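Retro notes (design track)

What went well: tokenization of the new backbones is finally stable.
What didn't: we kept losing track of which sequence belonged to which structure.
Fix going forward: every design gets posted as structure first, then sequence, in one message. First example under the new rule, 287 residues:
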């Protein structure tokens, strides 16, 4: 009985995960092959919901936006986070206070971030109005009401929130680098920036990979930031796949199409996570 106690304790949680996570994934996959509309209909019609999905202009815009948003969000967050970590690694004064300021945005929800940036980018009461009141009458910052710039407004808000998280990852990795190697490089006459570029940053490759995977996952499932900041607009110019799925499933009574878009998102996440987990597990076996 004592040997089986750990399994007994874990079993209810494991069963709940199997049912509420993997069970509903299977159910969603099945629904994506049916002719469900407002309510689930279990009559199979093959891949027609997927064909209809990829014929929709709204979905094409959502996928294009995901590539733009995902690439810029991950790239800029990693670069800004890495630069902040390098600067804080110089043992500056008030490091703890500055680190807290950079990390604070990650502690708040994307809804709050989106709402705050919506106020900032509102042409009638935000940054544009303030600068115009100062005398620069031609200044414009209405990104959230511009079809071509709305997606970049999302990138700006998301980077503001996530770069502190990336900074924390990189800073912890910088502090774990073997100091003997750094001292040896300094004795050989290497400049601090050469030490960072040639020794420290290359040794942080696993941390870079982890940061990119986590941020990519956040980008793919982004929903609440879009709702709060742009509402997917103007029109559907800043819609992302998660917003498309919600719109089709709960507002347009197209459950099958919404389920199909959810399965495409799942496949995208799996395409990122599976190779990463495989490389991590393979690396541990060789250690």
């Amino acid at each position: 009985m004592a040997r089986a106690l750990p399994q007994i304790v874990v079993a209810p949680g494991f069963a709940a995960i199997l049912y509420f996570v993997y069970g509903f994934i299977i159910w969603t996959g099945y629904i994506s092959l049916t002719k469900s509309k407002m309510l689930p209909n279990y009559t199979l019609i093959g891949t027609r919901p997927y064909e209809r999905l990829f014929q929709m202009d709204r979905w094409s815009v959502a996928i294009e936006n995901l590539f733009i948003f995902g690439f810029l969000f991950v790239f800029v967050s990693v670069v800004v986070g890495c630069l902040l970590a390098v600067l804080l690694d110089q043992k500056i004064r008030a490091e703890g206070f500055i680190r807290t300021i950079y990390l604070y945005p990650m502690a708040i929800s994307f809804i709050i971030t989106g709402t705050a940036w919506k106020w900032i980018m509102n042409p009638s009461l935000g940054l544009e109005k303030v600068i115009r009141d100062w005398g620069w009458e031609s200044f414009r910052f209405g990104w959230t009401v511009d079809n071509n710039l709305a997606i970049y407004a999302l990138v700006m808000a998301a980077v503001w929130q996530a770069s502190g998280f990336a900074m924390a990852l990189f800073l912890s990795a910088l502090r774990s680098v073997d100091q003997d190697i750094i001292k040896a490089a300094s004795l050989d006459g290497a400049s601090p920036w050469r030490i960072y570029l040639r020794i420290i940053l290359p040794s942080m490759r696993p941390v870079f990979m982890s940061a990119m995977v986590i941020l990519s996952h956040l980008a793919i499932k982004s929903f609440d930031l879009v709702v709060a900041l742009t509402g997917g607009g103007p029109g559907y110019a800043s819609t992302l796949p998660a917003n498309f799925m919600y719109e089709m499933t709960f507002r347009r009574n197209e459950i099958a199409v919404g389920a199909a878009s959810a399965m495409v998102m799942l496949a995208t996440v799996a395409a990122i996570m599976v190779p990463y987990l495989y490389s991590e597990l393979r690396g541990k076996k060789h250690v």
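Added context from the reviewer: The first helix runs from residue 5 to 31.
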